[in-house]
Amino acid sequence: MTDKLLQVRNLHGWYGKSHVLQGLDFDVQHGETVALLGRNGVGKTTTMKALTGLLRRREGDVSFDGRATSGLPVHALAAMGLSLVPEDRGIFSTLTVEENLRLAARKGARWTVREVFSMFPAIERRRKNIGGKLSGGEQQLLSIGRALVTGPKLLLLDEPTEGLAPIIVDRLVELIIELKRAGLSILLVEQSIDVCLALADRLLVLDHGQIVWRGTGPELLAAEEVRNTYITLETA
Ligand SMILES: Nc1ncnc2c1ncn2[C@@H]1O[C@H](COP(=O)(O)OP(=O)(O)OP(=O)(O)O)[C@@H](O)[C@H]1O
Ligand SMILES: [Mg+2]
User: Fold this and answer.
1) Please, which residues have CB within 8 angstroms of residue 154's CB and are 6 or more apart in sequence?
2) Do 221 and 167 fall into the same domain?
3) Residue 51's closest CA among 28, 90, 77?
4) CA dihedral 183, 185, 191, 196 (to 10 degrees)
5) Do 41 and 66 fall within a single domain?
6) Cα–Cα distance measured from residue 175 to residue 121, given in angstroms and rounded to the nearest whole number
7) CB of 191 shorter than 6 A to ligand 1
8) Each residue's pLDDT tens digit, 52-83
9) What is the pTM of this model?
10) Is 56 in the pocket of ligand 1 (CB under 6 A)?
């Protein structure tokens, strides 16, 4: 038994002829939160897509929970516990909050719809409202709730705080800390250094589809040149 939940070796990915991921190597341990940072277009979202089966052409060795994942389709990877909260949140705008959750829920998942409602009272109050009528913050909570009811072992969060008001970001960070405390492992794409410092155990900086720096939050704070070269940070 290894404490590695996710092991990524020499991961490459393409859109058509465009070679976007150029040999990524990293791990996520059980219970760990790892953040992916980097400027726009460096391949953060593509990494998330490659890991969850959404990228059509990928190569390399990715094992999850002790099993090789290559060639497995999206639904099989989701059933293994790889659960993506996409950049666009991906909720059904014409379905109600409750319908969005029930549709995603999987038997045996550690979080039930009821538990998600009790964890996120802000969306329980909106349970009969359609997804399209929610605020940005509520949509983000619903999107995370949907991922939780699928029974994730690794939650992949793609820029969860993007476009949200600071007070909503603070609340979201608290909720993600609660999920960490519950033992959930997280791969996080995030542009805010404050959010990274609050959540991530380790950070990876991407540039042109390669990892160019690895370290902890305090190490990144100290590495001014790395920040200036490879990252657009909202605050410093
Ligand atoms: N569906 C697609 N088809 C073709 N090229 C794409 C597609 N999606 C992304 N790309 C390109 O792949 C590269 C990596 O994109 P990706 O979305 O992974 O970047 P990102 O790091 O998530 O950026 P951002 O911070 O803007 O979200 C970019 O050059 C982008 O233009
Ligand atoms: Mg992206």
Assistant:
1) 5, 6, 28, 64, 81, 82, 83, 185, 186, 187
2) yes
3) 77
4) 40
5) yes
6) 12
7) no
8) 999 999 999 999 999 999 889 999 999 999 99
9) 0.94
10) no
